[in-house]
Amino acid sequence: MQFPQELDPDKLPAHVAIIMDGNGRWAQQRGLPRPMGHQVGVESVQAVVRAARKLDLQVLTLYAFSTENWKRPPFEVNALMGLLKKYLLHELETMVANNVSLRCLGRKDRLPDDVRDILDKVIADTAGNDGLVFNLALNYGSRVEILDAVKTVAGQCANGELAADAITEELFAAHLYTGGLPDPDLLIRTGGEARLSNFLLWQASYAEICFVDTLWPDFREENLLDAIRVYQGRQRRFGMTGEQVRPA
Ligand code: FPP
Prior knowledge:
Layout: E1 15-19, H1 23-29, H2 34-55, E2 59-66, H3 74-97, E3 101-105, H4 113-126, E4 133-140, H5 142-158, H6 169-173, E5 186-189, E6 208-211, H7 221-233, H8 242-245
Parallel strand pairs: 1-2, 1-5, 2-4, 3-4, 5-6
Helix pairs in contact: 1-2, 2-3, 3-4
Bound molecules: farnesyl diphosphate.
């Protein structure tokens, strides 16, 4: 891809996070079973990873399965796990070849053994790559993530390793699944809903949020570029005044 003329290469988000919503509705609108929406949604995942790589983004995070998604009918959960396994098997070589490093945000312990095995393999085989960091949020819940970090930090305080006064935002953030990575600059939710659904609640504190109506299976590179265009048109103030952050 040629760099899109109307995008400012110096103002790209370092980290884009996406809530991929609307798969079920996409399928239902066509009289298809909901898992068909997830299946076509995998094509959107492939397109967005490709675009993120071409744009040279630092981090891409996709919300693929939440801690609450286990409540869905078993046939849908099984279909999603099957798609994940197939996707990871299919993409392993491409990720290795394209210098992508896969990480998992979430507790892997509840994933089926075969999904966890291939996930661990892709993570291990791509660990040495230093290009795009691709986070898959799987069995992910932001509140559980925050609680896990609280428990780690509280344990260090209890055994005398750490003074409560020494707990800073940076120290705490280092214990989140995203430790060491920049916070998302741009958070996109597809499917027309306007909520965060327990996604990156700490990390998204200063993210620019873009709610788009496009259903995830229809989301392609152009839609990502549109969202980045919106992002580049926003003024990020981080609590300051417009005059303070406006370039002289
Ligand atoms: C939300 O749409 C989407 C999900 C719960 C799953 C997202 C999964 C994929 C795109 C495919 C598998 C992922 C990878 C990385 C291979 P929804 O079903 O809640 O849509 P609805 O709101 O229209 O019902």
